[in-house]
Design goal:
This protein is an alpha/beta fold and 340 residues long. It has one domain: 3-Layer(aba) Sandwich (Rossmann fold), CATH 3.40.50.150. Helices cover 22% and strands 21% of the residues. It contains eight helices and 13 strands. The strands form three sheets. It has a nine-stranded mixed sheet, sandwiched between helices. Strands 3-4 form a two-stranded antiparallel sheet. A hairpin with a 2-residue loop joins strand 3 and strand 4. Helix 5 packs across helix 7. The radius of gyration is 20 Å and the shape is globular. The chain starts with a strand and ends with a strand.
Length: 340
């Protein structure tokens, strides 16, 4: 396994300098937007952690649009996004900037102008190019809105060693490391697309968490997974490995959306939207994945040996329902449990 820490120093074996002949992403171009994201968090509970740039800014557009007045804007990578009745915000239709190109070792193929992750055994089918990285960052932003600014729900205290599986752009790992300077944070993914030079207590590695053995020298106090419905053939494999690599009393937390939209007035039933989600479920099954995994997280944690397992099922916070729902209109499951 190989990777680099957030200051750009190449490492392998979870912290050791690599062989110079190995392919390390030392020349990887990085997303400058993520590196500056500490000043773009409008909804963080600890505003002093992220800076107070947003406190003096207007959170509303100057137009008279009634759609825009529904809720404050989201500052997403420098773009102000407002709730709108348009199907896709115009800001998200821009051409990829190419500022975060995956290194050659992380690219399997290019199809329809999109690049995809490579790994000997991994079957992740979503892209890893700049457009996808922007989507992942927006996804993180929306989860923070849904969680009232929090990065996690489990009562973890001050964990010394933290693992973020399927870290994506690394945005969660980086923000967690800033909130917890006492923690050593590792983020793993099939693609080395994470930014460099952000904080010194984060390291990133390319790893297939499901199909390869974990060789961490020290157990973790907290393992985090978010939006991993599309990542694994069998989530139970990763859950079992997490249990084996947690210290006694350590926590695991999984958060995922639920792709079974519901309506209070019954208007969803029989609609084109319902038929679209039915087709989406069928397509996922055909690709060897399932949108039903999140509903099984609690059962799988208990079967693996976790105790004090808590399952939280909730809609968007009421103040942001119409706003956040325009961008990510689903309910979400958060499940966490402790190793005895």
């Amino acid at each position: 396994m190989e990777g680099y820490n957030s200051l750009g120093t190449p490492v392998n074996s979870h912290g050791q300098p690599p062989d110079l002949g190995k392919d390390i992403a030392t020349t990887n171009q990085v997303k400058t937007e993520i590196a500056a994201s500490e000043n773009q968090e409008l909804y963080g509970q600890n505003r002093e952690t992220y800076g107070d740039r947003a406190t003096q800014e207007s959170l509303y557009p100057t137009t008279k649009s009634t759609d825009a007045d529904l809720a404050p804007a989201v500052d997403f990578n420098g773009y102000q996004l407002y709730a709108s009745s348009k199907p896709v915000p115009e800001e998200l239709l821009r051409e990829p900037s190419g500022t975060s190109i995956a290194p050659p070792s992380s690219v399997l193929d290019e199809e329809n102008m999109r690049t995809y992750a490579v790994h000997e055994t991994g079957r992740y089918f979503l892209p890893n190019d700049p457009a996808e990285q922007d989507r992942l960052d927006l996804q993180h932003k929306i989860f923070k809105i849904a969680m009232n600014g929090a990065l996690y729900r489990a009562p973890i205290g001050s964990p010394k060693n933290v693992l973020d599986i399927a870290t994506g752009t690394g945005i969660w790992a980086i923000q967690f490391a800033k909130e917890h300077p006492e923690s050593n944070v590792i983020g793993t993914d099939l693609s080395l697309i994470q930014p460099l030079g952000v904080v010194d207590n984060v390291q990133f590695f390319r790893e297939d968490s499901e199909h390869t053995e974990w060789n961490y020298p020290t157990p973790f106090d907290y393992i985090h997974l978010r939006c991993v419905l599309t990542c694994f053939d069998d989530h139970r494999t990763v859950i079992r490995k997490s249990f084996d690599n947690l210290s006694s009393g350590g926590w695991i937390e999984l958060s995922d959306p639920v792709f079974h939209p519901q309506s209070d007035d019954g208007t969803f039933q029989g609609s084109n939207l319902e038929r679209m989600f039915q087709s989406l479920h069928q397509a996922m099954v055909a690709m060897g994945r399932s949108f039903e995994a999140a509903q099984n997280y609690k059962k799988w944690l208990i079967e693996a040996g976790f105790v004090d397992v808590v399952e939280e099922v909730a809609p968007w916070p009421e103040a942001f329902e119409g706003y956040a729902g325009r961008y990510y209109g689903t309910l979400g499951y958060t499940v966490y449990g402790r190793k005895p």
